[in-house]
Amino acid sequence: MTTLTALSLTEARAGLQKGDFTSVELTQAYLDRIHALEPKIQAFLNVTTDHALASAKSADQRLQQGDTSPLLGIPVAIKDVLTTKDIETTCASKILKGYIPPYTATSVQKLFDAGMVMLGKTNTDEFAMGSSTENSGYFTTRNPWDVERVPGGSSGGSAAAVASQMAPVALGTDTGGSVRQPAAYCGIVAVKPTYGRVSRYGLIAFASSLDSVGVFGQNIEDTALVLQAIAGHDPCDSTSLLAEVPDYLTEMRKGLEGMRVGVPKEYFADGLQPEVAAAVRAAIDQFETLGADVREVSLPNSEHAISTYYLIATAEASSNLARYDGVRYGARKNESTLWDTYRATRGQGFGSEVKRRIMLGTYALSSGYYDAYYLKAQKVRTLIKSDFDRAFEEVDIILGPTTPSTAFKIGEKTDDPLEMYLSDIFTVTANLAGVCALSLPCGFDNQGLPIGLQIHAPFLQEARLFRAGYAYQQATKWHQQHPTL
Ligand code: GLN
Question: For residue 129, how far is its CA from the centre of ligand 1 (angstroms)?
């Protein structure tokens, strides 16, 4: 049955609908593959076998009754920062060890309602803070293309699971690049929707003005189908948008003819790995061959993106993480005074990167420094957003690299947080501006590591990302390459 795991979501859906196999068989094939590959990859914090088989059974009943819902009976992996009722959710933090949420995140609930089968909760950097999963409080996930390398982060568990075909699709979250960067490192597709397109209800907060739920898939159509199911307004999240969600699969097939494509001149600077630059340039040429009208644009404030992001994200994190004090949330370490209890709970429960961010954020928000750091960062954020507004007056989408290099070695950047932060240089701007973006495979470097192409589109124009990505994917087939495991 293991060959079932080689199917894309779209292929598996056809097989389920025709009755070639059942959801229980499909789910069992994935569970077997997880069992075989997990010792090597370590993508999952928790494999929810019983839950999966029970959901698969009820999906089979719906299938037998003639239900043709597109995601019915299809397995999915869920990043462990999205809450799941009655199933442990830890954000890969020791402080949340044993936390059983009383409710399910809206994005996950929508997948359950659509009949999807959750295989398990995936590893991440603690509270989604990181770019490699090395900040997980439990273990580091391996890149399926080279197990000595990181899968990217923070949604590295979800990305590695999809890349190694331990799940056909997965949910992740993206605050500064956490679905796009690991998708690029693992050679798969990921979409970060517009801020507010998908409900954040049940997404355990890192930086609330930047957080978004994203989707991983092996190709554009699978990714689009899952976003279709989770997008839309949610009364439980006051920042979720009331806008209509178009039919992505119809929009996706419209081709590139006449599409105006912008290439930011700031994106091809020093520090970009030459093979990444070459692959992205080749992809841009391919867009032109396919009928797009390519021109240069400028995003002049991109150079301030990392500093702006790491001030705003840490400031929001320091206030969001105040709730883990052992009283409201967090595994309590009892001491004789309240103060000592707080100190022991937070001191032992959080890892060093989370502590670093709480300290940086508290500093940026403190009364003597607020104007110089937090307030200034907010102003620069507005400039970064205006860069996109201006560029999108001239072009329909923006193309560039997702990351400055391919996947780095485990341990290579752990002693140098700034080096680690710089791997987000091309991704944080979309979160600061609130626009949507997608990463898809566009080649390999000379060590056989995948390279990601990033597409940006304006506010709520996810359909354009899929349209551009699909046309490119059909012409190039990079997405059909899989790691040998
Ligand atoms: N790598 C970035 C960070 O560490 C982004 C993380 C994310 O998007 N969750 O903040």
Answer: 5
Alpha-carbon radius of gyration of the chain: 21
Q: Is 172 a pocket residue for ligand 1 (Cβ < 6 Å)?
A: no
State both tokens at 224: 């689009």
- The pLDDT score that the predictor gives to residue 1 is 43
Domains and CATH numbers, the chain: 2-261+395-480 (3.90.1300.10), 303-378 (no CATH)
Query: Could you tell me if 399 and 284 are in contact, meaning their C-beta atoms sit under 8 angstroms apart?
Result: yes
- Does any ligand 1 atom lie closer than 6 A to the CB of residue 177? yes
Q: Is 313 in the pocket of ligand 1 (CB under 6 A)?
A: yes
CA 2 centroid distance within chain: 26
Catalytic residues: 79, 154, 178
Evaluate the omega torsion of the peptide bond into residue 154 and state whether it is cis, within 30 degrees of 0.
yes
User: Which amino acid type is present at position 394?
Assistant: E
Q: How do 397-401 and 450-457 pair as beta strands?
A: antiparallel
Mean pLDDT of successive 10-residue stretches along the chain, which has 485 residues: 86 97 98 98 98 98 97 98 98 98 98 98 98 98 98 98 98 98 98 98 98 98 98 98 97 96 93 96 98 97 96 98 96 95 97 98 94 96 98 98 98 92 94 98 98 98 98 96 95
Closest listed residue to residue 245, CA positions, set 256, 234, 257, 236: 234
Residue 131 CB–ligand 1 contact under 6 Å: yes
How long is the chain? 485
Structure tokens at 288: 């032109």
Strand-strand pairing, 260-264 and 293-297: parallel
Query: 360 with 314: CB under 8 angstroms?
Result: yes
Q: How far is the CA of 475 from the centre of ligand 1 (A)?
A: 32
Among 91, 122, 178, 211, residue to substitute to test ligand 1 (most atoms within 8 Å of Cβ): 178
Whole-number Å distance, alpha carbon 104 to ligand 1 midpoint, is 23
